[in-house]
Amino acid sequence: MYLSSWSGRHVNSPSPDSCHSHRDFPIANWLSFCLLFWAGRQGGREGEWPAELIFILEEMDSNPMVSSLLNKLANYTNVTQGVVEHEEDDDSKRKEIKAPRMGTFIGVYLPCLQNILGVILFLRLTWIVGTAGVLESFIIVFICCSGTMLTAISMSAIATNGVVPAGGSYYMISRSLGPEFGGAVGLCFYLGTTFAGAMYILGTIEILLKYIATNAAIFTGGEEATLNNMRVYGTCILALMAIVVFVGVKYVNKLALVFLACVILSIIAIYAGVIKTAFDPPDFRICLLGNRTLLSGDHICAKYVIENNVTETTLLWKKFCSDDPSLNATCDEYFRLNNVTEIQGIPGDGVAVGKLLEWNNLWSVYREKGVIIEKQDMPSVPVPSLEEVKEKSDAYVYTDIMTYFTMLVGIYFPSVTGIMAGSNRSGDLRDAQKSIPTGTILAISTTSFIYLSCIILFGACIEGVVLRDKFGEAVNGNLVIGTLAWPSPWVIVIGSFFSTCGAGLQSLTGAPRLLQAIARDGIVPFLHVFGHGKANGEPTWALLLTALICEIGILIASLDSVAPILSMFFLMCYLFVNLACAVQTLLRTPNWRPRFKYYHWTLSFLGMSLCLALMFICSWYYALVAMLIAGCIYKYIEYRGAEKEWGDGIRGLSLNAARYALLRVEHGPPHTKNWRPQVLVLLNLDSEQLVKHPRLLSFTSQLKAGKGLTIVGSVLPGIYLDKYTEAQTAEENIRSLMGVEKTKGFCQIVVSSSLRDGISHLIQSAGLGGMKHNTVLMAWPQSWKQTDNHFSWKNFVDTVRETTAAHQALLVAKNIDLFPMNQERFTEGNIDVWWIVHDGGMLMLLPFLLRQHKVWRKCKMRIFTVAQMDDNSIQMKKDLQMFLYHLRLNAEVEVVEMFENDISAFTYEKTLVMEQRSQMLKQMQLSKNEREREAQLIHDRNTASHSTGMVKSHTAITTPEKVQMTWTKEKLISEKHKNKETSMMNYKDIFNMKPNQSNVRRMHTAVKLNGVVLNKSQNAQLVLLNMPGPPKNRQGDENYMEFLEVLTEGLNRVLLVRGGGREVITIYS
User: Fold this and answer.
1) Residues in contact with 324: Cβ distance below 8 Å, sequence separation at least 6, in sequence order
2) pLDDT score of 312 more than 70
3) What is the reported pLDDT for 869?
């Protein structure tokens, strides 16, 4: 201790300047020291210290002063975190921000106690005990308290796994299970809190109209008038409470201690009344006719009285005898046959288990609505006309609703909610990770003991007919629980009135802030407006919405009907708290390190199962509606909400499940029945890293009815260190386009030294484990004849070779910019399949997948196959139809016959032009200016030869197209070293060359097949063709491109399909 060197009665003090200059002293102690020094100087003994203050100073670090403890009690609040700070901004006298100093008792235990003990205890627990009996009531309370205790254990584990800011349960669930679950459950918890406010207000009105101001009812009459009174008064009270909350929560805060004192005093009054009953029971008499309970009133509990030897009938006689006071009057049959007796509502024999058996309070007494409340062990003479008695007599006490076990569970469960009060205020606690588990579990244990003991005490002390009398009509309109209280029933009446008022105010204070926290997270777009409020942060718009929803509960006007509604929402919240803890525990994520160690995933799973069971026990249709609401909110957030990365457990669960599934998937190819196109889409990007052919992604999404894997890849030429930023930009652009086109998949950008190597890397390494692509989709290089095209014909042919080597299917979309977008719809048309070579069934499967999408759904599928001279066309058609029948595919079948005939002049001409271009590229290098002139010269020469009949032919089919030259970069560089004379000599050799016969045959096949396809499928919406493989000799690669160009000439939309070398469709189940 710094003060340990000070001794004696008085010690010298430092100079005033030392309060500013001492640096070795801890700041907090030094400030206290300076304050004490100032106090000593003000006391008139400047320069001297009273030793007693020194001893107090030494004790201050470990033990707070009595005034400090009283100050904490005076500043006790049960409002949610952040409210006090908002109100302190309005108070100009409070400038300093106080550090959170609340402990377990003040910060967690008392708020939980106040929230758990409430309106159900005072207004409905005695009725539940009387209706369900002690045994079943004990089961109801035990099940509900067990559910909240298991939830508290899970909540303690989550709350102690790091700091929990404002938001409480919503924050815990959303950060543990993700924004979808968090938003859905957070809104359900908000609705539960809002309806809880409605329930508390209805409880307040019930106490006011039935037990305090019985003459204040506006409407008089039957049940409907009572409901209207509840609606009118409830709306007024709600408006008044909303104004109080809007004007300033500090007033609610100042009354928090009053509300807490009301709850505690009411509980003490109940136990005191039980003790007093053993010695001096209160006088609450009940009048019975036979075994039926009569309404209390000014009448004497007898049929007649004898005064001065004169027999006079009572008011009770008149009620049952049509207001005829004579002894010879015609009376009700049941009244005539049974005696009137008077018993004590609270017998004076004290508390004894034997009384439970004797009074039959152990067993349940469930009744329909409108049944007279009867004493079970009282003899009576029955009469057959029971319904008649009900209609004629208003002297009995009737049941107001039909009762059964599950309904009582739904009504009782709200009395055990409120366990989140401590976690909601974690920011105000000195040590939240220690206080939340201890305070919450202690509060649940305390309230569970209170509820369970009250069940036994009520059953042992109060008569059964009084317990079943919900509104105390048989005991002069007194609150039933108040009949047991000491020193007066008014203690319970007044205490419960203020308690329910306070609980309603706290609900209207907490619910808007919960909605504000959800709105500010930005996960539900349409709630964004409720994140705003007054200048100091008060949620004005959220308060308005809360009041409107609360008004819906008030218009229901029945506490028994509102209670099951909020039970659903609270149970769903507790269910997901348990789920969050179970998921985090089972995943064993490195960040899951709660300080609270007394948890296990089995307890969380048990709590989750119990909450789910309670939902359906309370009300199966309310449970389905609550789950439907939560499900709709979940899907809405998933579809429209902002994506949040909170490190939640559901994402961890997804990663774990993905890892497990990937390890389970066999590395080899799947069975034919499980085959589906796992597509690698190769995109081209422009100089600004934008996609050149966005409709390629549209076609991908249309093809993905098979629900397979999609990887969208692209290659950037260069070095990764230099192209890192461009690669990120390209990935963002592709992902954005994937979102627009609704293409679900993954994006992969490769930076490689050459475009060729990058494509090779994608084909080899895209995917993971068994989830690798088996199909490559790319666009046809339209400008393959131009030298400045990066994706040249050579890269294209090499890509075809690599997919073949990797046993992957290849899809090449020609004229991709003419393909439909996802918003377009074909109302008619055909998808034509030209099945020339069997490729494993790809040509059959692709149209089927496309027709699953809305764009192609109304298109018909036609299959063409080619028959040669030796084939039986009729039998081929039958066989193909049978094959399609076994494949379960609906398609028209047509066999096209192609016979050998003479090779046309056009075929020779096409072949010659192709070979001349290739030979010229090998021998000549022309300048850029000469290229166009020489190309035109070759074109004119070929045209002249065609007109003079240089090639033997009967007819010419069409006029040859203009020839474009294809040049390489190396030849352009060396063009300056060639002279024109050598060029013209080489030209003469080229003009005199003859076409290669093999190329002529290939060109002949391409021309003939193109003519047949044009004849049959020129107007088709899409044409699928077998794609022939490239030549083994690489010198013919350019000729291969020319063959494919001729094959697809004149068609609008073409999909060239090359199989992967395995069957992809089967006739077997």
Assistant:
1) 318, 330
2) yes
3) 67
